[in-house]
Amino acid sequence: MDEKQKEQFIKLTNFLGQVLGKQYEVVFHVLSKEGAYIAAIANSHVSGRTLESPLSAFASELVQNKAYLKEDFLCDYKALAGKSKLIRGSTFFIKNHDKLVGILCINHDTSIMRDLICKMIDLEKIGDMGEILGNISFSQNDSSIETLSHSIEDILVQSVDSSYLNSDYQLSITQKEEIAEKLYEKGIFNIKGAVPIVAKFLKISEPSVYRYLKKFKK
């Protein structure tokens, strides 16, 4: 993506943020040679993310699996901000021919609307809230739900066995490679800045991570 195209999507992000209103977060990710990063974000209070936040694990996996070759966009999927805020997400793939160069995401905070409906249901004693609204119980461990993470470290917590996160746990060489391969398959290395953080977590050098990546790509 050249600078002119990037600038147009930054303007579009801010425009959509104002038009849609404060319950809609609009996020523009650029996919560069160094990895994906947020170039613009409007109404960031919805998820609490910043320009320094990473591409979500869900979106990283879409990139890794080349979902953009089959679809131009995805609409109305479940997402979670923090531990309990319910979000409806949509993603538009920005492509130059078949090359993915960016992602535009719109996240709708439905929590206020749901709270209001719940209060109305309770006030009028209409019936069971679950039957009317459907199953609204979200879990961060549900792989079908996008979690809007604030850092790459947060994504590692989602992606790696919790026992490995103990600083006293000594990973074997085989375990380190298996974890790196799992992160590769999930598209974590599509995120800008992922390599040094993964290297620190695995207690290996950055060149070692790049050697793993070269092996996985074969």
Automatic annotation (TrEMBL):
Q: Which domain of life is it from?
A: Bacteria
Question: Which Pfam families is this protein grouped with?
Answer: HTH_22 (PF13309), PAS_6 (PF08348)
- Which residue intervals define the domain YheO-like in the entry? 8-115
Span of the secretion signal? none
| Transcriptional regulator DauR-like HTH domain segment(s) | 166-214
- Identify the PANTHER family for this entry: TRANSCRIPTIONAL REGULATOR DAUR
Q: What is this protein called?
A: Transcriptional regulator
Q: Which organism is it from?
A: Campylobacter coli
The upper taxonomy is:
Bacteria, Pseudomonadati, Campylobacterota, Epsilonproteobacteria, Campylobacterales
